[in-house]
Automatic annotation (TrEMBL):
Region annotation Disordered: where it falls in the sequence: 90-113
E.C. no: 3.1.13.4
UniProt family annotation: Belongs to the CCR4/nocturin family.
InterPro entries: CCR4/nocturin_mRNA_transcr, Endo/exonu/phosph_ase_sf, Endo/exonuclease/phosphatase, PDE12-like_N
Name of this protein: 2',5'-phosphodiesterase 12
Residue ranges, compositional bias (Polar residues): 100-112
GO biological process: antiviral innate immune response; cellular response to dsRNA; cellular response to interferon-alpha; cellular response to type II interferon; mitochondrial mRNA catabolic process; mRNA processing; nuclear-transcribed mRNA catabolic process, deadenylation-dependent decay; positive regulation of viral genome replication
Cofactor: Mg(2+)
Domain 2',5'-phosphodiesterase 12-like N-terminal stretches: 161-270
Coiled coil: none
Domain Endonuclease/exonuclease/phosphatase: 298-598
Annotated GO CC locations: mitochondrial matrix
Native organism: Callithrix jacchus
Compartments reported by the entry: Mitochondrion matrix
Amino acid sequence: MWRLPGVRAALRRIRTAVEQLSRAEAESEKAAGAMERAVVRCVPSEPKLSLSFALADGSHKNMQRDQSEPLGRVLSRIATNALKGHAKAAAAKKSRKSRPNVSGGASCSGPGSETAVACEPVVKLYYREEAVAEDVLNVDAWQDGAVLQIGDVKYKVERNPPAFTELQLPRYIMAGFPVCPKLSLEFGDPVGSLFRWYKEAKPGAAEPEVSVPSPLSPSFPSSWTETDVEERVYTPSNADIGLRLKLHCTPGDGQRFGPSRELESVCRVEAGPGTCTFDHRHLYTKKVTEDAFIRTVSYNILADTYAQTDFSRTVLYPYCAPYALELDYRQNLIQKELTGYNADVICLQEVDRAVFSDSLVPALDAFGLEGVFRIKQHEGLATFYRKSKFSLLSQHDISFHEALESDPLHKELLEKLVLYPSAQEKVLQRSSVLQVSVLQSTKDSSKRICVANTHLYWHPKGGYIRLIQMAVALAHIRHVSCDLYPGIPVIFCGDFNSTPSTGMYHFVINGNIPEDHEDWASNGEEERCNMSLTHFFKLKSACGEPAYTNYVGGFHGCLDYIFIDLNALEVEQVIPLPSHEEVTTHQALPSVSHPSDHIALVCDLKWK
């Protein structure tokens, strides 16, 4: 976990105290005649409020009412509902044999009647022990701590208590890989919420440990046994293989707790793949770096939209076991790999929108990172940053072709390109995008950094297109880092689809590209577009020039880089890439032990 051991111990003590206090309060309230709950959700931006409570007959009522409606109308509606509920309860009793009516305030008897005749109960709302006038509008009437009385039953009003709006467990769970529930909260946050994990008791095992009901350990069936994990993330062990998991969670905001929810995994814990290509790398990244450093990751994670095709299975990756190309399987590996790097900045390429929202955000948020997403066409880019170190100051994303056509920054470049209509047409057809995020240090507001992330055009003969795209990218990054935020350093990550021998790499490292470079005719004479280009930056590849960052059956080479601003940043350490033996254990990538056809670049950078 990303939390320090001391913090975890403190949280455990707090949770234990909360449970004990809750049990004591529950026993005290029970002895004193505890009030039921009436939950009100009232948001200024919405025209209606919701009111939820349980009637004495056991039925649950969910009402939607206009916020501008007078309170009296709601109370009248509640009384009608209560009357219907009482009538149903009376009918049920009669069918089980008539019994004397012993309830108070909600019925009356007609002369000579054998059964109670229901009368509309008294319904009132009180705030600070005074009845709320019936002409008060709903938005003002339903205050937190008010008391709703229906006949003899009293309800404590809870206005906008913390609540889960979404809660899901992954569909595929493997031993040794973190289980990160997807959750969304309203009026609360994960840090202030409580979590407890349970697993199925093995057949023939001793009596389950769960025995004392509490807000966090209710009366579970005897088939569940409590684990010692009270965190948001649970990592199953080999002992859990074949068992299902259960999560009990209580939403909170640090002061209040809302209604608890439980969910069980639909699948059983599967065996993991054994040693993965990134396990040895994690030995170098066990802890989050100190404030002076920025651990940076760049990784093309292989979009599901490309992995799940017949062409991928039969031509691109025929050596990869089909199940290892399935998204549910690969997500486990990607989550474990990324969380194990304890990074401060993560730039990802080929990110499916659903993977970003359903997998990456829940997993990385649980480990202290927040992310932004930029769609390209079928997939996009994602940048995550550690919340304890950085806040997001601004975003300046662009589409290359749109910026080239419409932004005055690129007027000179466009004037050069229009001289070559065939090349211009091909460049403007490309959907590639650039994601630019300006981050500010949470410890020193004067420290800001420009983080750029891109995935350039992929075709082997598209060298001149990548040169144009890179020229647009660097001009835009200069505008952000010099004009909008003068003097801030730059980290430029991505899959540039260019080896160190290409014109694109030469342009980035040397600051210029001559008009006679061979890449201007990368797709033949018809699309030749000779021009000279220069850029302002002094950039370096932080991880050098590895033999390869992409390794598939028919190709291997270095396509990915983390370019850094040499005037402001320096490299503290580069996390070693997997050995060639590890990469080729299953012939090539992806494989059962590696989720992508690319390899993540990881380095620790230091402010100068």
